[in-house]
Amino acid sequence: MNQAAVAFDDIVDTYYHTWFRYHPEAAVDAGVEGYAHLLTPAGVARRGALVCLNDELRVELEELDAGKLEADRALDLKLLQGAIQVENQGLLDIEPRQPHPGQWLPVNAIYQLTIRPVAGFEAALRARLEAVPAHLRAAQDDLRPQAARIPLPWLQSAVTESRQGAGFVRALPQHPKLAGIAGLEQPLERAAQALVEYADFLENELAPRAAGDFACGRVRFETLLQQRHFLDVGVDALYAFGQELVERTRRELAVACREVFGTNDLRAALARLQASHPSKQTLLATYRAQMQAARAFVRDRNLVSVPAAEQLEVVETPTFLRHQIPFAAYCEPAPNDSAQRGHYYVTPPQSEEELAEHDDIGLMHTCVHEAWPGHHLQFVTANLNPAARRLPRLLNASATFYEGWALYSEQLMHEEGFFNRPESRMILLRDRLWRALRILIDIEIHTRNTSLETAADRLVTELGFPRSQALAELTWYSQAPTVPLGYATGWALINALREHLRRAPLSLSLKIFHDKLLSVGSVALPLVIQQVFGEPVWREVRQRVFGGAA
Fold this sequence. Notes:
By secondary structure, the protein is an all-alpha fold. 64% of the residues lie in helices and 3% in strands.
């Protein structure tokens, strides 16, 4: 390594050594030891310390001889520079303007210790449990004077997670990882009671005054587009792309619906499809079988390199997450997990209407998206790649890549014949329309004053979603600006890239193309394209998708 590379690595190591004190859950997820006993601190002191830390990093990076860094470190440098800009804007503008009661909930901090390989598990678990009461009292002190600025949907979500989290904590003695650990009864109960009290505080004291605006605003939205996703496209150009994609997909869906069912009535067609679904008793087993079928298909067709070491557990969604995950989701393994064990969550349906959403064909699509060759394959591949395990990449993932890849995976498996029923194309297009609408709704609710209720009406009308699912979706959108748009935007960029590379002499086999695309990690897709295929290719791809708009 040259001197610039050594200096850069030292800067990165020193920075994260301190940064993880304020983001201990991120440290555990990244497989970094030494922070599993901590909870994320709350309050103004934390914000001030992080702003100063990020400012110091910015100065150090500016003084670095960046021109002497090789490609991998140059990519990491871009990610770090973007990350500190995004975080400082959040600390100085977003957090004071939009306090988030769920930000300080310690339930996930406890849960992650049960699914991550953690040195000194018992001591870490005990430390986090014992810290919960004081931690939540500090969160109350921080939130009390800010009640009027709290968005009510965020508060309601935090109440649900806190109450369900209390039940989760009380049930932990039955977890196999806690077998044989004595003396946890009191710390567990104190933590559970603190969660109940926090929920009561939010519901009784703050909810009557909570009237904050969830919209992040145009400035924040643009910052995320440029510094998290590196899209080099403005909000208006992205909205125009979303409109065109929605209209095109809507037309294709209408054609598919008529061809298969002889009607333009999407709801009627979906009702016929949803009549065929597993029972509640066989739901998890069906997901496991379909996941395995998708894995075998990917391997047999040689579509992409299959990691040698991986496992995927299909399990019920943890209780405290069910209000956020109406149906299914994926949790990737930590990089230091030798088994590379991912978790595929399926939320137990509470009604016949919810069970019908797990229809046979839709379920297959979900397994492709969440597992093979979607999220599970992609994240495990990244975890097994030393370059992709570098901290700036692990900690700055972009939905343009990981969700774009998962949506592209649905199309790929359609093209390759995994979905062999004519109804499958209709579901493919319905789900693509859903992701295209996310572009518009994401922009509208955060920059154009659209209410969640209005947006929910659109999901119900356009897609036939149950209103409860639509509102759960939108509460997530409101908390994660620019993430929902990553699905369809990333999908479009991957397709444009594939079409560009099909031209001689650039033509690549699908497997080589996919392996190259997955070689960098889960970071912003524009950076991946530039890194692997070159800046001119990125310019061509950008032009294909967005035209000359900026």
